[in-house]
Design brief:
Length: 198
C-alpha cells in the first residue's frame, strides 16, 4: 500500500527522475492517476514557487507538453567553472558505466541505459553531455519521445580511436551487465601519449 504523498511533490519527483528526457503530461497522468488539468495547475504553481525560491537552483521547463527540470541560468557561470575544474576531469564510476553502455549499444535512450545499469542515469548522462562525449541525435518514436544518444567525434579523439569499430571486444557481446568497473576502466583508458592533454 502506497503512503499518501503530496500531489505536487509526486509530480516533482517524477519529473526529477525522468532527467533530461523529461516526462509528458500523458505519462504523468498515467502514473499518478491525476487528470490533465489538475497536473497543469499543480505544475504551474510549482513553477512559480521554484522561480521565487532563491535557495532553489532548479526551474521547471515545459516544451511540447513535456516537463523537465533544469538549473537556473543564474548558476551557469558556477557550473561552468565546475566542469572546467580538475574535480570534473575524471570520469566517475557512474559516468564510466553509462558511457560504456552508450558506446556499445548506440543509438540508445536513457531508459534503455537505466535498464542495463539498474539505476537512473540522468546525472551521468548530463555530465557526459557537458563534456561532449555523447550527444542527442533525435527522439525515439514512442511515448514520451525520449532522446536517443550516441558518442561524439570528440569521444573518438579523447580515447584515441579513429572509428567506433576500434572499441575493444566485450567479454560477452550480448550483455553489458557482465562488464566490471575495472574492465570498463581498461576499455576507456586514454592512450598515455594524451594523458597531459587538456
Amino acid at each position: 500500500m502506497l503512503v499518501e504523498i503530496d500531489q505536487t511533490a509526486a509530480l516533482f519527483a517524477l519529473i526529477f527522475i525522468a532527467g533530461d528526457d523529461g516526462i509528458d503530461l500523458q505519462s504523468l497522468s498515467q502514473v499518478t492517476g491525476f487528470d490533465h488539468s489538475a497536473i497543469s495547475d499543480l505544475l504551474d504553481d510549482l513553477d512559480q514557487k521554484l522561480a521565487k525560491d532563491k535557495t532553489n537552483p532548479l526551474k521547471l521547463l515545459k516544451n511540447d507538453a513535456t516537463y523537465r527540470l533544469i538549473t537556473k541560468s543564474d548558476f551557469a557561470a558556477l557550473l561552468g567553472r565546475y566542469y572546467q575544474s580538475p574535480i570534473a576531469n575524471t570520469l566517475s564510476k557512474a559516468s564510466l558505466e553509462t558511457l560504456t553502455i552508450i558506446a556499445y549499444k548506440q543509438p540508445v535512450t536513457r531508459v534503455e541505459v537505466d535498464k542495463i545499469r539498474g539505476v537512473n542515469s540522468s546525472g551521468a548522462i548530463s555530465r557526459l553531455l557537458s563534456r561532449d562525449l555523447i550527444h542527442g541525435v533525435g527522439r525515439k518514436d514512442e511515448i514520451g519521445r525520449p532522446v536517443i544518444y550516441e558518442t561524439t567525434n570528440f569521444f573518438l579523439d579523447y580515447f584515441g580511436l579513429k572509428t567506433i569499430t576500434e572499441l575493444p571486444k566485450l567479454p560477452d557481446p550480448n550483455t553489458l551487465k557482465n562488464v566490471a568497473s575495472t574492465d570498463q576502466t581498461d576499455l576507456f583508458q586514454r592512450p598515455k601519449k594524451n594523458e597531459n592533454e587538456n
